[in-house]
Amino acid sequence: MNECVVVGRVKELPEVRKTAKGTTLTNLIVESDRNFRDEDGKFSTDVFSVTVWRGAAETAASLCKPGSMIAIKGRLTGKLIQKEDREYYFTEIIAESIDYLRGLTAA
Description:
Blueprint: E1 4-10, E2 16-18, E3 24-37, E4 43-53, H1 54-63, E5 68-83, E6 86-105
Parallel strand pairs: 4-6
Antiparallel strand pairs: 1-3, 1-5, 2-3, 3-4, 5-6
């Protein structure tokens, strides 16, 4: 089973794009606070790359602004990228559904 849920703030204004075959997509950068403090007493933040496809991509691009709170349910994908004789692993979330948490904004 490959399923994840992330609740967090949109970091950047998303832009709608189209693939070469005309499929709509947008990428979101989402920051999510951890639920425990680090050694300095502060809450650390994780940053996630989220890809949204088709009609949901257009909706996300129109509703998501920096600081918007959203809940994403999706699946993880991993990619291996080789560059200059090195291997890099990249993980992103493919959104299956997004809840727009109205009334909640970044503090």
